[in-house]
Amino acid sequence: MRRAGPGLILAAFVALAAPAAAAGDPAAGEGLFLDRCVMCHIAEGGGQGPPLKGVIGRKAGSVDGFAYSAALRADGRVWTGPELDRFITNPSTAIPGTAMPIQVPDAKEREDLISYFATFR
């Protein structure tokens, strides 16, 4: 029996660690973002909500100079596709005390948004 080489193992790990949004439509996500999110969030710079550039892979509450809620600053999770999905489904349930007021109950819309967020690298 032949063992998997390091390259194959790394490829499998990357595939498993990829955001859940791989199946999402980033163009549809951009439309949703512009319609529902951009009033508070922007890809870069300041806003009422933190910038979303590089959000996937970033520790929650960690953008220097942004005034996060105490709950989000203390949370410590790293934003992955699945973590973002849970959070935007119902932010106040995912992280009680967060200031994020908007929910995205539709799974396809969340998938599209997260797929769009993944383009912000």
Description:
This protein has 121 residues and is mostly helical. It has a single domain (6-120), classed as Cytochrome Bc1 Complex, Chain D, domain 2. Helix content is 45%, strand content 0%. The chain is built from six helices and no strands. The protein has helices at residues 6-17, 26-37, 70-75, 81-89, 91-94, 107-117. α2 (26-37) packs across α6 (107-117) and α4 packs across α6 (107-117). The radius of gyration is 16 Å and the shape is globular.
Number of helices: 6
The rough form would be described as globular
Instruction: Catalogue the unreliable spans.
Output: 6-21
CATH topology: Cytochrome Bc1 Complex, Chain D, domain 2
CATH class annotation: Mainly Alpha
Largest sheet: none
Strand content: under 5%
Distance between the first and last residues' Cα: 40 Å
> Into which percent range does the helicity of residues fall?
40-55%
Q: Specify the CATH architecture.
A: Orthogonal Bundle
- SSE order, one letter for each helix or strand: HHHHHH
Rg from Cα: 16 Å
List the defining traits of the structure above.
121 residues; Cytochrome Bc1 Complex, Chain D, domain 2; 6 helices; mainly alpha
Nutshell version of this structure?
The chain has helices spanning 6-17, 26-37, 70-75, 81-89, 91-94, 107-117. The protein is an all-alpha fold. It has one domain: Orthogonal Bundle (Cytochrome Bc1 Complex, Chain D, domain 2).
Per-chain topology:
Blueprint: H1 6-17, H2 26-37, H3 70-75, H4 81-89, H5 91-94, H6 107-117
